Amino acid sequence: MREPACVLCGRTDADPEICGATHVDFGMCVHVFCMVFSTGLLEQAWLVDASVEVAPEDVRRVIQEAEQKHCSICSRMGATIACAETGCEHHFHLPCAQEGECVTQYFGQYSSFCQEHSPRQAVEAAPEQNAACIICMEPVGDGTSYHTLVCPACKHAWFHRSCIQGQATYAGIDCFQCPLCRDVDVFLPDMLVMGIRIPLSGPTWEDGHAYASLGLRHGRCDASECLYPHGREQAEGEGPWELLLCSSCAAEGTHRCCSYLSNTTDAWECKTCAGVGT
């Protein structure tokens, strides 16, 4: 069966990085961010177990009001998002935002701006001749634009909007920073204002604890002949059978007795670090 279309944008193929996951309830399918950005819905929402809930009658009301509003980008009717600029009559669907160079701010009041009223970076900088995106290494053009951004801190890191959005998605709020100067304090707020969505989570490379083993302490005697009766994997808290780790690499260990060390010896180096025969 085909996936149902979002009742707010009418799309089944929308980019989840822009529109978020789909949510089906009360017989209606909506993208999370289509719901959040739709005019008037956020004010009617409430928080339940860290998720946003909206009454179905409020969703139906927004759909009904949007039936007479055409999208200024794709020209289809049913545009539920209005430009936040006072007096502006432009409306659009969330999946159309990038095509129409609209900025949608994924924080605070979740404001949206049409191309005419979208914020521009305040930093005064120009890329060097033949400057490339620091992420994909493709040319960035002659200066800042909707599709080309620069780090406001170092003013030397240039990148495409799609490239920095991809980095934000993978890094999350915990690790998102300028790819060049590593600034966070100036860089992160500026990216939010410019419409980069930064997930409120840790980096995806930590999903499933893929690197958890890097935090484990070595726990095995690596002497050529282990003398401990209970085996290489066991040790005692003190004395001749206490396990000492290499003081340089901590990647190898030995029971004191297995390397003929006294009970008062606190430091030991493996053969790789100290050299064979030492």
Automatic annotation (TrEMBL):
One GO MF term attached to the UniProt entry: zinc ion binding
The UniProt record lists the RING-type domain at 133-182
Occurrences of domain PHD-type (ranges): 3-118
Task: Give the SMART domains listed for this entry.
Answer: PHD (SM00249), RING (SM00184)
Q: Pathway membership of this protein? A: Protein modification; protein ubiquitination
Q: Where in or outside the cell?
A: Nucleus
Keywords on record: Metal-binding, Nucleus, Transferase, Ubl conjugation pathway, Zinc, Zinc-finger
One Gene Ontology cellular component: nucleus
Q: Which domain of life is it from?
A: Eukaryota
For whether the record's keyword set contains Nucleus, the answer is yes
Q: Name one Pfam family in it.
A: zf-RING_2
Q: Transmembrane helix as a keyword?
A: no
Q: Which InterPro entries match?
A: EPHD (IPR034732), PHD-type_Zinc_Finger (IPR051188), PHD_PHF7/G2E3-like (IPR059102), PHF7/G2E3_ePHD (IPR042013), Znf_FYVE_PHD (IPR011011), Znf_PHD (IPR001965), Znf_RING (IPR001841), Znf_RING/FYVE/PHD (IPR013083)
**Gene3D superfamilies, per database record:** Zinc/RING finger domain, C3HC4 (zinc finger)
PANTHER family of this UniProt entry?
Answer: PHD FINGER PROTEIN (PTHR12420), PHD FINGER PROTEIN 7 (PTHR12420:SF47)
Protein name stated in the entry: PHD-type domain-containing protein
